[in-house]
Design goal:
single chain; 549 residues; alpha+beta; four-stranded mixed β-sheet; 19 strands; globular
């Protein structure tokens, strides 16, 4: 490939990123669920006709993006590309073919130019309700957790499948929002298709295959080059989750070869009887993300750049849940995986790794009305979930981020957005003092949230919280972040997982974990004192006496 052609391919690549970003923004602008339009809990991307992801939107979560990357191949098994027509849209929420639980809808749509299929667009979004027990860990099988949608057509050549929409409206507590979200997901792909066709016309391209080949070849070579720089060997780490029935231990042995990184999860805890189990695609999604953040963060995320990261997940392990085990809140365990990967990589490239953070999101699913209080209900029925985060782990040269989602990457939802769509009131939402793990650089601060309802009516929370019994650890002598806490504003302690009713006149109080620190706090103090000595504010004798500086 000559220099001019290389430049042209790079321009086309940049244009493709603009295409998928507009695809994602269309969903955000049109979505009904606050989880999408306020928190950005979604993914969007373009795929070749073999189901390989070329590019993803910047907006999106690793759990959605990297799981969606696997899901398109499942769509093609049932509906081969040659059978697709313009205006078709296909959908599923199958946890084992999609992104790991029933609350995520994945839509795949073909892109046509001059009557010829040229690519596929896919997206995923987290919706508020799909029936069943609702989002929470209480189910004992996936059949209890909500409405299951196999891979089906929701639009056939632009015509809505009314039978499909009848089913989903009947199966949800929020039928208007769910139906609206399906239309939003399809509109999102339509926007991507329109922009792709315009791009192909502008560049005179009959196919995206040459560009796909350039993207895959460049991404794979760049990733392999980064892996080759790492010190080879096997590195082991483990991390603990509060679990449900019992604590959960995640173990990993990461072997760095010259051309690949292989992770073996032997020794990890077995399956749970509740919905904290993780389907394997979700395990791969977050583990690969954790590795990529450290090893090759600047290389675009696509099929080829993720191919060298390989997972060995034993059967019967909580990270390899088989159908029909409950998986509704798979994120509680799955979002610990980047910290686990960094525990391994810290031994190989310590300067690139952050301390442990709060990891899993603190998303209280709230419910009220007759479905909680029966005939005594003082509120209309409502079902809502709000996205919030504790602190991230400290970085080598910077403090951790306060109240920021990592590894998920979703935005914290404004309280006003939640209060606008449900009869709930956030009486307090502020950073949590003294929650950051101390160190040379400190962890990020967690948050304190106090939640009630209008008129102080009874309501329920389906708790899905972690890092309470196992707070985030620091690295290199850094201190732990503060553990989380779940209870009522009067001091009553609640369970960290499961459905619980908040009595009339009481409020839910959540104290979100802080991130772990990096390095010894004494190192930081010595550095500060040294600066004071240089400025003449402290004598050298006093500095040596008090700090050894």
């Amino acid at each position: 490939m000559d220099a001019l052609e290389t430049i042209q391919r790079q321009i086309q690549w940049n244009r493709l990123i603009a295409v998928v970003e507009e695809q994602a923004q269309t969903m955000i602008r049109t979505a009904f669920s606050t989880t999408v339009r306020e928190a950005g809990d979604l993914s969007a991307g373009i795929f070749d006709l073999q189901g390989r992801m070329l590019a993803q939107a910047v907006t999106g979560t690793p759990g959605h993006v990297n799981s969606m990357m696997e899901s398109v191949g499942h769509f093609l098994v049932k509906f081969p590309a040659e059978t697709m027509k313009p205006g078709d849209h296909y959908i599923t929420n199958d946890p084992w073919l999609g992104t790991g639980h029933l609350h995520d809808l994945t839509v795949v749509s073909p892109a046509f130019r001059d009557g010829k299929i040229v690519g596929l667009f896919a997206n995923t979004a987290h919706v508020i309700d799909v029936g069943g027990l609702g989002m929470g860990p209480e189910g004992r099988s996936v059949f209890e957790e909500g409405m299951y949608i196999p891979i089906v057509k929701c639009f056939d050549q632009g015509v809505a499948n009314e039978t499909f929409f009848d089913f989903i409206r009947a199966g949800s507590r929020t039928p208007v929002e769910l139906e609206g979200d399906v239309y939003s997901l399809c509109a999102c792909n339509d926007a991507g298709i329109k922009r792709l066709v315009e791009m192909l016309d502008e560049f005179g391209m009959d196919s995206i295959d040459p560009l796909a080949g350039y993207i895959f070849d460049s991404s794979l070579k760049a990733t392999l080059a980064e892996i080759a720089k790492l010190p080879g060997g096997t590195y082991r780490a483990e991390i603990a989750s509060d679990g449900y029935e019992a604590p959960v231990t995640l173990k990993a042995a990461m072997t760095i070869h010259g051309d690949r990184i292989v992770v073996d999860y032997a020794g990890t805890s077995g399956l749970s009887g509740r919905g904290i189990n993780v389907p394997p695609a979700y395990t791969r999604a977050y583990a690969c993300f954790g590795i990529k953040c450290v090893v090759a963060p600047e290389i675009p995320n696509n099929w080829a750049s993720l191919a060298p990261f390989q997972m060995q997940i034993p059967e019967g392990c909580i990270l390899n849940a088989p159908r029909p085990f409950p998986v509704s809140v798979r994120h509680v365990v799955g979002q610990l995986l980047p910290d686990l990967m960094m525990g391994c990589l810290h031994q190989a490239v310590p300067d690139r790794v952050v301390a442990e953070g709060s990891s899993c999101l603190w998303n209280p699913p709230l419910r009220g009305g007759a479905q909680v209080s029966g005939g005594e209900a003082e509120l209309p029925d409502f079902e809502i979930i709000t996205f919030n985060s504790g602190g991230t782990g400290a970085r080598r040269g910077f403090d951790g981020l306060d109240g920021t989602a990592f590894p998920s990457g979703v935005r914290t939802m404004p309280v006003e957005a939640t209060e606008n769509v449900a009869p709930v009131i956030f009486w307090k939402k502020e950073l949590r003092p003294d929650s950051a793990g101390p160190g040379r650089t400190r962890g990020g601060f967690g948050q304190v949230m106090e939640i009630g309802t209008k008129g102080e009516a009874e309501f329920a929370v389906n708790a899905i919280f972690d890092r309470v019994a196992n707070p985030p650890k620091g690295r290199e002598g850094g201190g732990e972040g503060a553990p989380g806490w779940v209870g009522l504003a009067d001091g009553t302690v609640l369970r960290t997982k499961g459905y619980q009713v908040i009595p009339k006149g009481r409020r839910l109080l959540l104290k979100l974990p802080g991130g772990g620190g990096m390095g010894s706090a004494l190192e930081r103090d010595r550095a500060l004192v040294a600066a004071d000595v240089a400025d003449g504010l402290v004598s050298e004798e006093a500095a040596k006496r008090d700090y050894g500086a």
